[in-house]
UniProtKB/TrEMBL annotation:
Keywords: FAD, Flavoprotein, Monooxygenase, NADP, Oxidoreductase
Similarity annotation: Belongs to the FAD-binding monooxygenase family.
Pfam families: NAD_binding_8 (PF13450), Pyr_redox_3 (PF13738)
Name of the featured protein: NAD(P)/FAD-dependent oxidoreductase
Cofactor dependence: FAD
Length: 538
């Protein structure tokens, strides 16, 4: 592309949405290729997820040495992670460092949200509307809006009645000290709630946790990284990254070959105990090959965790409420906590099971369930996100036929490779629905997708084409592949944000490709080699 001439016409080659992990790498990759790029970020600075989710205890539960960019050897040599699972502030510092090191902030306009984008078929460009009233035009539009960036609305009546402090984990705007000495109600026990609850309990007068679905929480076993550990990683970094690129989840895999019932009950127990010490995604849930495909095999691992909960939690009634009995281990996102179950042994923490007593309303100073009234000075919402489609629908996309994206996906998400969707030419999603992003080290998936998209656009340009669009056939095939892959697993049995079931009325589509990042990479590479079947290039 001729950057100079496109700039002079007021049309940029690419508009990118978001300045998180995706947007920053996108701006780096595309501007290095000589393209003009204009990025828009709703927040005041870089960071995306790691800018907004500042709740107490927030950290990534993919190890930081993997959950970081691999595209630049000097970058990965010069940055030193302090802990196995870096806290939010350190991940944000890393992202800021990357933005400054590669001088990327200049490509973005901050505090500016994309609120609409319409495909102009005559001129083959996107007309992108911003919340400041301006319209910008681009040949290509690429979303790095993230999968977990649109907070879910609280779908219980009465929140408006509550007169005390209200805060959500995903838009945390208070300090932990603001909860000191208060009676705090925490609603939600997914990854965010699990990380925040133990720290809130340390300062609050009392914490009442409102749990709807108990989840599997394994110990995070976070540790400081020693200089020797850091050194040994850096010596091998390129090989480690290469292993991650060809793995299942974008992290090194533990070599496991046998099924749960290939070994005796005693041997299984011994192995689960050892895996429990490892924790992380390579822990108990990865101990045998069939744990996510065979419900009986899974039961052996699930019951192992149930027993751990009963061992840790002193009050038997509370322990039983915490035991995750509604879904198999791993079928919805497992959580990794620090002193999570131990927190329920504190005298200032109590648990309310919303399965037994649903919330009916709130008053100015209490949460009212079907069985009781729980007074609170503060309410912390840890209720999750309108995953994947929320951020994309927020872009207000109108495709070639005049249909909105939410109309095109009325009966469920339909994509090609999780990257493109028919009727929306020259529009790409990075870490989109039906990509491996949902079940992988997302930074690795982001790099792969950005590179693939950049190569596709380059290929189209070399062919003299100005339009690239998923074909309906290519898209149908990909939807079939993602659905067949999930149908073979226990993910298919369980309601969660993975399939949109956390949002009332959202069609039930599994939001990820589960075949693994290595297999996906090979497929994408093969598709490129074959001249991009499944994509109309015109
Ligand atoms: O959200 P969630 P999250 N009344 O959707 C409950 C990533 N992440 O922010 O299960 C009462 O998992 C809901 O109950 P139920 C990670 O991918 C990563 O915690 O729907 N309760 C559930 O308990 C994660 O999976 C990290 O029955 C209500 C909770 O709220 C994803 O983000 C850290 C309710 C929501 O859990 C989302 O995690 C944090 C209602 N009306 C997040 N609505 C790390 O890497 C919802 N709930 C560490």
């Amino acid at each position: 592309m001729n950057s100079t001439s496109t700039s002079a016409s007021g049309i940029v080659d690419v508009i990118g949405v978001g300045a998180g992990f995706t947007g920053l790498y996108l701006s780096h990759r595309l501007t290095n290729a000589g393209w003009t790029f204009a990025g828009f970020e709703a927040g005041p600075s870089v960071g995306g997820t790691w800018f907004w989710n500042t709740y107490p205890g927030a950290r990534c539960d993919v190890e930081s040495i993997y959950y970081s960019y691999s595209f630049d050897e000097a970058l990965q040599q010069e940055w030193t992670w302090s802990q196995r699972f870096a806290p939010q502030a350190e991940i944000l510092s890393y992202i800021e460092h990357v933005a400054d090191r590669f001088d990327l902030r200049k490509h973005f306009t901050f505090d500016t949200r994309v609120v609409g984008a319409t495909w102009n078929a005559a001129d083959r460009l996107w007309e992108v509307r911003l919340d400041n009233g301006e319209t910008r035009r681009s040949r290509y539009l690429i979303s790095g809006a993230g999968g977990l960036s649109t907070p879910k609305d609280f779908d219980v009546p009465g929140l408006g009645n509550f007169a005390g402090l209200q805060v959500s984990t995903s838009r945390w705007n208070i300090s932990l000290d603001d909860l000191a000495g208060k009676r705090v109600a925490v609603i939600g026990t997914g990854s965010s709630g699990v990380q925040a609850i133990p720290l809130i309990a340390e300062v609050a007068e009392h914490v009442t946790v409102f749990q709807r679905t108990p989840n599997y929480v394994m110990p995070a076993r976070n540790t400081e990284l020693s200089p020797e550990q850091v050194e040994s990683i850096k010596v091998d970094y390129q090989a480690i990254r290469e292993e991650c690129r060809h793995s299942l989840g974008g992290i090194p895999e533990r070599p496991v070959a046998d099924k749960a019932f290939d070994v005796s009950a005693e041997e299984r127990q011994r192995r689960y105990e050892a895996a429990y010490e490892l924790s992380g995604f390579n822990g108990v849930g990865a101990e045998f090959t069939d744990l996510i495909t065979d419900v009986e095999a899974n039961r052996t691992a699930s019951e192992f965790i149930h027993d751990k909960i009963r061992e840790i939690v002193e009050d038997p009634a509370t322990a039983e409420l915490l035991v995750p009995k509604y879904h198999p281990l791993g079928a919805k996102r497992s959580c990794f906590g620090t002193d999570y179950y131990e927190t329920y042994n504190r005298p200032n923490v109590s648990l309310v099971s919303l399965r037994d007593e649903p919330i009916e309303t709130m008053t100015a100073n209490a949460i009212v369930t079907s069985k009781g009234t729980y007074e609170a000075d503060a309410v912390v919402l840890a209720i999750g996100f309108d995953a994947f489609t929320g951020p994309l629908y927020g872009l207000g996309l109108t495709g070639a036929s005049g249909a909105k994206l939410q109309e095109a996906w009325h009966d469920g998400v339909r994509t090609y490779l999780g990257i493109m969707t028919a009727d929306f030419p020259n529009f790409f999603m990075v870490a989109g629905p039906q990509s491996p992003a949902l079940a992988s080290n997302v930074v690795m998936s982001i790099e792969q997708s950005v590179d693939w998209i950049a190569d596709l656009i380059e290929h189209a340009l070399d062919a003299g084409a100005t339009l690239v669009e998923a074909t309906v056939e290519g898209q149908n095939d990909w939807v079939d592949i993602t659905e067949e892959t999930v149908a073979a697993t226990l993910y298919a049995t369980t309601d969660s944000w993975y399939r949109g079931s956390n949002i009332e009325g959202k069609p039930n589509t599994f939001m990820g490709y589960l075949g693994g990042v290595g297999k996906y990479r090979r497929m994408c590479t093969e598709i490129a080699k074959r001249g991009y079947p499944g994509v109309e290039i015109d």
